[in-house]
């Protein structure tokens, strides 16, 4: 078993004053795999609640590309981990479970939470253990969560797939740059990952029996800071072809983009960021009409776009080398009627007539 030092010093909070939350209602949400999100209200219709989630840590091999496999560590079996949605003022109560079949210690660091390494110092569990963490959602926005078991295990677990997003909506919902309420028709949840898969001497990618066996060679590649793959939602092509996202003309789609390790720059080819919370925080006034926006490593961002034309859109990391060569591309298939006022092919291609 590969183990890390505990995440910081083990915290003893037994002397803290108790909090009485017995008057608050409880609601449980079942998490769903990305790019989808569990059902939720955009505007809160009640006062604060305790929102319960259960999440299993799953260590498993995943296929990153046709010729590459990764000994992944995941939240709930997906890369990225599932999105949780609550409202500002709610309490998030997460049951985190580390099944006995796993090899590693794991925990969870919520960038949305206050204290104890984002919960990491209170959630470190061995295989065969589980824990319950509750924190108050005091800040509105989209925030990264990731595993942070301590020392060199932190970057390894993150680049092995252990990150995700929690969205904390303002109780009154989202607002545009003028303070006017705005809603979305669907969420497209995109997790970008940089993977560092070692190669054999002949250039083929190595494949390992388990995560522990992969660690030394993977660490060597990680230290060079050059990823072998940069992908959306766990593998090359995860959101293209038959797996493409879908929308209709007139629909507003909220793109939520997470990158727990490296900076990235999303761009929707053929569309725009109508409203962009580049730093992901909903009480900040959104920027408008962006062509490309910036997501800092270790954060999530959000962009709202109303589709105006049908067709196939590409949503990419606009480091185009990473998009085309390493895999950071998604597609959105949009149905509807074409509007020639916005774009028209005035003349189809004809033979060249120049001198």
TrEMBL record:
Main subcellular location: periplasm
Presence of the UniProt keyword Oxidoreductase in the record: yes
Segments forming domain Plastocyanin-like: 61-172, 189-338
Keywords for this protein: Copper, FAD, Flavoprotein, Metal-binding, Nitrate assimilation, Oxidoreductase, Periplasm, Repeat
Entry EC no(s): 1.7.2.1
Pathway terms, separated by semicolons: Nitrogen metabolism; nitrate reduction (denitrification); dinitrogen from nitrate: step 2/4
Oligomer and partners: Homotrimer.
Name under which the protein is recorded: Copper-containing nitrite reductase
Species of provenance: Rubellimicrobium rubrum
Gene responsible for this protein: nirK
């Amino acid at each position: 078993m590969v183990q890390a030092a505990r995440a910081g010093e083990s915290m003893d909070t037994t002397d803290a004053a108790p909090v009485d939350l017995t008057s608050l209602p409880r609601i449980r949400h079942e998490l769903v795999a990305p790019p989808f999100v569990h059902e939720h209200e955009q505007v809160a219709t009640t006062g604060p609640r305790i929102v319960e989630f259960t999440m299993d840590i799953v260590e498993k091999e995943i296929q990153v590309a046709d010729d590459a496999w990764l000994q992944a560590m995941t939240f709930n079996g997906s890369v990225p981990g599932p999105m949780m949605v609550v409202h500002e003022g709610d309490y998030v109560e997460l049951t985190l479970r580390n099944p006995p079949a796993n090899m590693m210690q794991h925990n969870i660091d919520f960038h949305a939470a206050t204290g104890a390494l984002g919960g990491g110092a209170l959630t470190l569990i061995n295989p065969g253990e589980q824990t319950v963490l509750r924190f108050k959602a005091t800040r509105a926005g989209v925030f990264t969560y990731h595993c942070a078991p301590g020392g060199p295990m932190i970057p390894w677990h993150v680049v092995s797939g252990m990150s995700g997003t929690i969205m904390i909506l303002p109780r009154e919902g989202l607002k545009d740059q003028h303070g006017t309420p705005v809603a979305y028709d669907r969420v497209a949840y995109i997790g970008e990952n940089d993977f560092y898969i070692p190669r054999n001497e002949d250039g083929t990618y190595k494949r390992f029996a388990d995560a522990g066996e992969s660690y030394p060679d993977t660490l060597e590649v990680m230290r060079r800071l050059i990823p072998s793959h940069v992908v959306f939602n766990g593998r090359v092509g995860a959101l293209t072809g038959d797996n493409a996202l879908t929308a209709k003309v007139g629909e507003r789609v909220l793109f939520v983009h997470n990158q727990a390790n490296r900076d990235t720059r999303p761009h929707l080819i053929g569309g725009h960021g109508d409203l962009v919370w580049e730093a992901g925080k909903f009480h900040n006034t959104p920027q408008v009409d962006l062509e490309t926006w910036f997501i800092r490593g270790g954060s999530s961002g959000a962009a709202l776009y109303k589709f105006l034309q049908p067709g196939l859109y590409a949503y990419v990391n606009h480091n185009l080398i990473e998009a085309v060569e390493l895999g950071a591309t998604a597609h959105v298939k949009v149905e509807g009627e074409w509007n020639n006022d916005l774009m028209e092919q005035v003349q189809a291609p004809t033979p060249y007539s120049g001198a």
